[in-house]
Amino acid sequence: MKMIDPKDFVLSPEEIAAMKESPAKSPPSHKPARGIEFFKFPKAVLIAIFRANYMPTLALAMAVYEGWYRDFKKRNPVKLTSALLAEFGISRDQKYRALKILEQSGQFLVERSPRRNPLVMMKWKLQKD
Predict the structure, then answer these.
(1) SS3 label, residue 119
(2) Of all residues in the chain, what percent carry a pLDDT higher than 90?
């Protein structure tokens, strides 16, 4: 085992002079921009949701859109899982009512199967399998 020698960390006069000639880089004057996360819905979807005056519908639409956004392949339709809805605090009954309202808006298609999570397709996004 080699012992640390303080003489190994001493700078020579030439190294000190070279450091004075080249000033250190100044830190950037502004903070780097963070990615802004937002949800862009078509106007027709938002109008239909607010007309229904049932806010779990908006939360469900956001959950569907976030599920699509997080998917690496950006698949549409989105499988509406319980884990996705748990983040938004949506119960099973609220999900059922909100899906009906979203379907009635004409901007979503919902494919239901017994004992399976529903598949929700956003009409304004390209459909992918």
Answers:
(1) strand
(2) 16
